[in-house]
Amino acid sequence: MILLELFWTFFKIGLFTFGGGYAMLPLIESEVIGHGWAATEDIVDFIAISESTPGPFAVNISTFIGRTVAGLPGSFCATFGVVLPSFLVILIVSRFFARFKENNGVKGAMTGLRPAVVGLIASALLSVGMSVFTPSTSLSEAFNNGFTESVMKNISFSSDVLPLIISILLFLVCAFLAFKKKHPILILCLSAVVGIATGYALGL
Amino acid sequence: MNKQLELFLTFAKIGGFTFGGGYAMIPLIQREVAENKKWITDKDLLDVIAIAESTPGPIAINAATFIGNRVAGVTGAVCATLGVVMPSFLVIVAISYAFEAFKHLKAVEYAFWGIRAGVTALILKALWTMFKQCKKDWLSLCLMALAFAAVVFLKINAIFVILACAAIGIVSFQIRRVRK
Asked: For residue B121, which residues of chain A lie inside 8 Å, CB to CB?
C-alpha cells in the first residue's frame, strides 16, 4: 500500500532527523532514493525549489515526493508522516522540560549525534557532487581508457569539456558567494541565469 | 478571537514568510510570538531552541508544537503545527504540478543544470557551518569520519549510523562522568 509506505518512510525520516534542513539529506538518500521514488538529481533540483519557497525543507520535500509518487493523498500522507514524530516528541518533552534539559542520556546522545550529522552531510555532499559534476559519456570513456587518438575524436570541446568546466567554475563562484553570506535565493538565481546562457550559447 | 484560530493564523504567517526554514525562522517567531502576542518570553524562546536542537524534526515544527501546547494545550499544539505546515504544503503542491509541466522545456532544463552547481555550493556552506558549531575533540572527529565512511564505503543506512552514534555518545558521556 503506497500511501502507508509513504507515511512510514517519512515518519522514519522525521524521527531520525536532528538539526533539520540539510541534516535530512542523508536520510532522504537512504530512504527515498532507495525506494526509487527519486534520483539524486531530482533531490538536488528539489533543494533549489525548497530554498526559494516558504517553509521548512522537511515539509517541502515530503509534500513534493508524496505528490509525485501518489498524487494529493500521497503528499498528505508523506507530510503527515514527517511532522508527526516531532509533534509527539515535543508534546511529551514539554511536560518534563526541566528534567529533559538536565538528562544525561539526552546530553550524551547529542554529543554523538552532532558529529554524526556532520559526517552524514559530508557523505550527501559527495554523492550530490558526483551526480552534478558527471563527465559526459565520451569524456568518462577517455578518463577510463586513456586519451588515445580514437577516443579523443569523439570528444567535442564545446559539448563535453566546456560544460564541465563551466559548472565547476560556477560551483566555485557560488561557494564563494555562500561563504560571503549572500542570500541563497540570489545564488540560485545567478546559477539559473548562467545555466540558461551556457545552454543556449553552446546549444547543448 | 479564539486562541486556537489565533495560533493557527500566527503560525501560518510564520510558515508562509520564511524561506529556507531552520534558523531563518527564529527572528520571525520572536517578533510574532514573543513581542506581538506575548505568548512566551524571550527566555522561553531560547529554551524552545534548545529543545528543538535535541529533538528530531525541523525547528519550525518543534517551536510551533511547543508554543501551541503552552498557550492552549493539545488542541493549541495541533492548530499551531497545522498553521506552520499549511503554507508550504499548498505552495509545493502547486509547484509540483507546474514543475512537471515545465521541466522538459529547454530553458528550464538549462536553468536547473546551472542551479545544481549552485545547490552543491549551498550544501558545502551548510556542511561548513555545522562543522564549525560542532565540538572538535577526538571523539567528535572520529564519529564524523566513521559516519561518513559507513555511508559512503559500507553503504549503511543513515538511520543505523545515527542510532549507533547516539549510543556511542551516551556511553562515552557516562564514562567521562564516572571518571570525574
From this structure: 171-172, 174-175, 177-178, 187
